[in-house]
Hints:
mainly beta; Immunoglobulin-like; six-stranded antiparallel β-sheet; 2 helices; globular
Amino acid sequence: MEQTKEKNTTELILRNRAELNISGVCDIISSDENSIFLNTTDGTLEIGGSELHIISMNVASGTMIVDGKVDNISYHDKIQAQKSGFFARMFR
Length: 92
């Protein structure tokens, strides 16, 4: 029996730092050769590297394929960004 993936999950598969398959993509915030920012079901995802290109994007399924040299992948949660303001740092 084939397992079905939940539509609200994010999955990242990186092959040889050259091809990144992503599921759970909601939309693309920005993209250039050195960085790609995405909204995913798990938060904002930043992909850093060089010669990055979006090979395909399927809006209906929320999947994307990126190629190039991937140097880093990081999530930026909305809650964390709100808590890092001036007063949050002052009252730690």
